[in-house]
Amino acid sequence: MSSMPLSTANWHWKNKNVTPWAKTWFEQELVSVSVKGDGDEVVSISSLRDMDGDVELGQRKSKLITIFDVKMDLGWSGTASDGTEVSGKLTIPEVSHENIVDKVSDLVYEWSLSTDSSPAVDALFALAKKRLPELLEAKFSEFPKAIIDRHGKDVYVSGDNSRAGTPGPSTPSSSGKATSATPSSAAASASAPVKKPESALSTTTVSVEASFMASADDLFSMLTDEKKIPAWSRNPAVSKAQPDTEYSLFGGGVKGKYISLTPGKEIKQTWALSSPTWPSGHYATLTAMLDQGSDSTVLKLKLEGVPTGMEEEITRNLEGYYIHGFKSIGLGASL
């Protein structure tokens, strides 16, 4: 049993990279995708040739979140109606949470044929292009649940160590107390924010940065427009994007006020984490700096006023929920 109360342990942002496991899962599962034509022809996915990208499982306030954005190169093969062995390649540029779970865009399929063309070969190629996508998408739809079933126990602290199942939805109350039906007095007490005198609080600064395939103006808009923020944060947002107005991200997990906004250049705002470990009433200062290059924009996040001892946790939070949030919608680029 964790020494930390359940409500506290599951409040933190946690991420686990599961990319190697995901590649193995796709290698094993996608080769089961096969379709038979009206005659003797049959075609199937023969291999996962390459996979590029990241797959993670995140947890915030007892909610498990799948974060994935990968490019796949698949091999396909089959037998034409005249007995000819046929093969080719299929590239899917983006398999992500957005097009598998959120359905905000369609999957793109790029097909190629390695076998010399003939009427029978062309008919099999047409069968592959017509029938395999729907079967692949059915298999992809199983992927998010497979991630949670296999890795959920590693980022979620269960109240019963004998269970490794996926937790049900849970929403902490505004007081920060656990929503369990019978919380112990110790757990309820521990889940309340710890009040520290501001003068006694030792703080430091953490920074993260990444390059994205987007203009500085577009990134600025995605960071401040409450209609666009949910695309990468996967949660409701409140943001009027004016100095001295309050904002709320990640369903209330982060709150603060805007200090100044320079479109396409910089956003400065106060920043507080809604967590029992974050000192009550304390606000750090987050500065988002945008530097546009010829084909990408570097986003640097500098958070000043982080309580000493929380540097590693907050760095993971910034990388997991801001940087990987943008990567999950297909904006990632190499620095």
From TrEMBL:
Biased composition range(s): Low complexity: 164-194
Residues covered by region (Disordered): 158-200
GO BP term, pick one: protein folding
GO MF, one annotated term: protein-folding chaperone binding
A single cellular component GO annotation: cytosol
Gene3D superfamilies assigned: 3.30.530.20, Activator of Hsp90 ATPase Aha1, N-terminal domain
Domain Activator of Hsp90 ATPase AHSA1-like N-terminal: from-to ranges: 15-153
InterPro entries linked to this entry: Aha1 (IPR036338), AHSA1-like_N (IPR015310), ASHA1/2-like_C (IPR013538), START-like_dom_sf (IPR023393)
Similarity-based family: Belongs to the AHA1 family.
PANTHER family cross-referenced by the UniProt entry: HEAT SHOCK PROTEIN 90 HSP90 CO-CHAPERONE AHA-1, LD43819P
The name this protein goes by in its record: Activator of Hsp90 ATPase AHSA1-like N-terminal domain-containing protein
